[in-house]
UniProtKB/TrEMBL annotation:
<protein>
    <submittedName>
        <fullName>LuxR family transcriptional regulator</fullName>
    </submittedName>
</protein>
<dbReference type="InterPro" id="IPR001789">
    <property type="entry name" value="Sig_transdc_resp-reg_receiver"/>
</dbReference>
<keyword id="KW-0238">DNA-binding</keyword>
<dbReference type="InterPro" id="IPR058245">
    <property type="entry name" value="NreC/VraR/RcsB-like_REC"/>
</dbReference>
<dbReference type="Pfam" id="PF00196">
    <property type="entry name" value="GerE"/>
</dbReference>
<dbReference type="InterPro" id="IPR039420">
    <property type="entry name" value="WalR-like"/>
</dbReference>
<feature type="domain" description="Response regulatory">
    <location>
        <begin position="4"/>
        <end position="121"/>
    </location>
</feature>
<keyword id="KW-0804">Transcription</keyword>
<dbReference type="Pfam" id="PF00072">
    <property type="entry name" value="Response_reg"/>
</dbReference>
<dbReference type="InterPro" id="IPR000792">
    <property type="entry name" value="Tscrpt_reg_LuxR_C"/>
</dbReference>
<keyword id="KW-0597">Phosphoprotein</keyword>
<feature type="modified residue" description="4-aspartylphosphate">
    <location>
        <position position="55"/>
    </location>
</feature>
<dbReference type="InterPro" id="IPR016032">
    <property type="entry name" value="Sig_transdc_resp-reg_C-effctor"/>
</dbReference>
<dbReference type="InterPro" id="IPR011006">
    <property type="entry name" value="CheY-like_superfamily"/>
</dbReference>
<keyword id="KW-0805">Transcription regulation</keyword>
<feature type="domain" description="HTH luxR-type">
    <location>
        <begin position="148"/>
        <end position="213"/>
    </location>
</feature>
Amino acid sequence: MPVTVLLVDDEPLVRAGLRAVLEAQPGIEVVGEAADGAAVIPLVRQLRPDVVAMDVRMPLMDGIEATQAVLRTVDDPPKILVVTTFEDDEYVYEALRAGADGFLLKRARPAEIVHAVRLVAEGESLLFPASVRRLAARYGDGDRPARAVLDRARLTEREAEVLRLMARGLSNAEIAARLVVGTETVKSHVSAVLAKLGARDRTQAVIAAYESGFVEPR
């Protein structure tokens, strides 16, 4: 089955460019477009895309509000990839905190765009870990609820080690090689970390780790 994508951006040229890049690749299908975040929920319910590639800044409903709305109201929501002009934009970090799974620069090369969509769809690795770390260092505020979540999670020593490696952007296979264990064992640890933190994916777990001070972003 192809990875299905919904494009959301108020600039028609951006949507056209992303569509051209993605549809040129095998295994990716653009199933719809929207010009504002306000149109996302009905389209997600109708089209059931795997990934929503969404501009972080739009006139009526921006990518942060749209991300929150999708995660709050849609059962089995899609992965959300926010699209931005500047990687150090506070809006990007707020979108990640709101539940977005990653971000993509509008100036990215075609191969990077395709890689981002596929990686977010798979959900096994953190997209652009160094950039997420820089955003956390710049805009993170030592969130008290995040600290409480980490305290309540009571991660085992091995789970804590896995979370730290996730924050560095390592894939399950890379974590397995580092810890000298099987990939299935790592998958079990990752699943346990996500469940204990109440995180829907690796990005949210890593954001919680940074926000709580469990992992130092600098």
